[in-house]
Design goal:
Chain lengths: ~325, ~325
């Protein structure tokens, strides 16, 4: 099998461990064997030559030749930031990548450098489109991060009522899923986690509308449609992404921005509440801090990773 | 009272009638008397001199001097499109405006000119922040529109489980609101529409995370914080907005983009469903077509508008 470069392998591993440490285990190290599968099936290109298919002083389209998601999206993030440094705002369209993983990894890397960043991704059909009874659109992941006083503040969400990962976890444990959150493969509503496979969109037409628009922005603007291809029966694993960066210091002094974020968080924390009030991304940052000394990995996943490591075919 | 220019008055009226015709009556003509109130209270500046506070070839900050929302946001939309025409992508930050209304009015006007457009707005506290029991953040309206084969396709959503308008309507009719959708002023959950006043965020931390980030992007990047000011007790009516435009033809031929949108819609419409499958914005476009001959307005609103028209003070 063609060798992935050490730089690319290190980046993918770092993105997976980052998600694992923040508590997003479904976007964590359990993905490594899946990525190897994607390489074996010829869907993930281990030696992509990412190139700029279109470029202006503020925007760029990166043709990623089915690169690993972390490799393509980090290249996109760096390009969007470079454009934003020049023009105040920068757009990178990431064409033809694979599983983009936890988008917060990219937006937070930009936020640590002083950018406000938005990232989104389009994928093959997984979630129902409002009113339909089949997998129709991606789960429309979206991340927005901004520089904070210390760590970035970051939203990292999917536009489904229940994530694919939570579905898989419920299936493993046999726990029921909440009513109205997912459909079985035959399109019938179910709370039985052994049958549930199609998440429903958050807010009905809102969640599926976001997924529709992410396909338009990331896939149709790059001339690489995913949903129509898949719905017409020519589907294979692939994703497209989009990153927008804004250079905070071009708009307001970065120190003032950090001060205002702290002020906003303080004002929100003073509100009446039943428990602790968390800012976007704070739970993940705490999980990461707690797991810095020792990262707990699911025993099954650990066994899979060990097997992968000793597999001569990989 | 200072006279609003005919151009500005016409634009505001057009935006309100547009929303009314599309079925968004809570963002329709019932707002006209509220806008006059805002002028009387000195919160809406009838004669703003909108100026560019910061500018690059791709980005601009418009200081809108408390202009009417439609005036400020249309200026922002035009500026974002002008930047996108030059640079592929354009960002306009709309600083210091008032009620921005139905954001789809702006994104759709851009989409009709061949742009993909994103608009969002930040407002005073209306919705609960996840985990709190008080009005803490805006309802985080977001619109994304793209050129369609004929009319633009457009998502136009708030990030609350129930809109402020739907709350007001339920209150007028006395109908209960769905459980878990809103809080009473004292922070207790309620289904009683006479008591419900604070909508809860869509998807808990997702909806309130979007609202937090919209404040960071539209308000903190323009040095015009709304939420912290209001939560600290110095609130008054105001909003900030953000418009991003992408010039479709710089990325793919516009005809190809329109063809692909049509193909995507056709593929989605073939999915198993219980009823008709609507594309984003389609319901609104149908409402508008149906009401083109005769627009039905609520009798109470009509009386208020008539009174406003004959009021010498206005």
């Amino acid at each position: 099998m063609t060798q992935v470069s050490e730089a690319h392998a290190t980046l993918v591993a770092d993105a997976l461990v980052w998600a694992e440490m923040r508590g997003m285990d479904t976007h964590g190290v359990m993905r490594a064997p899946r990525y190897v599968d994607l390489i074996r099936r010829g869907e993930l290109n281990p030696v992509p030559r990412i190139h700029r298919a279109m470029e202006t002083p503020a925007a760029v389209v990166l043709d990623c030749e089915r690169a690993a998601g972390a490799v393509a999206m980090m290249e996109g993030t760096r390009a969007a930031c470079e454009k934003a440094k020049h023009s105040g705002v920068g757009l990178a369209l990431v064409k033809a990548t694979t599983h983009t993983g936890a988008l917060g990894y990219y937006t937070q890397s930009a936020a640590r450098e002083g950018y406000a960043a938005i990232a989104l991704a389009a994928s093959v059909p997984l979630m129902a489109y409002h009113g339909t009874r089949g997998a129709a659109v991606g789960t429309a992941p979206l991340s927005i991060a901004v520089p904070g006083a210390d760590e970035p503040l970051a939203l990292d969400m999917a536009s489904s009522l229940i994530s694919m990962g939570a579905l898989m976890r419920s299936r493993a444990s046999g726990a029921p899923i909440p009513p109205g959150a997912a459909l079985a493969a035959d399109g019938s509503p179910t709370t039985d986690s052994r049958r549930a496979s199609i998440p429903l969109p958050l807010g009905g037409p809102k969640g599926s509308g976001l997924a529709f628009m992410f396909e338009c922005l990331a896939s149709l603007l790059t001339g690489n449609p995913i949903l129509a291809e898949a719905l017409e029966g020519r589907g294979r694993h692939r994703q497209n992404g989009l990153v927008i960066a804004m250079d905070v210091a071009r708009f307001v002094p970065l120190a003032e921005f950090r001060r205002e974020i702290t002020r906003l968080a303080a004002a929100l924390r003073k509100l009446p509440a039943d428990g602790e009030i968390l800012m976007p991304g704070e739970r993940g940052a705490r999980n990461a801090a707690r797991q810095r000394a020792a990262l707990e990995i699911d025993a099954g996943v650990y066994a899979e990773l060990t097997a992968l490591n000793s597999d001569p075919g990989s």
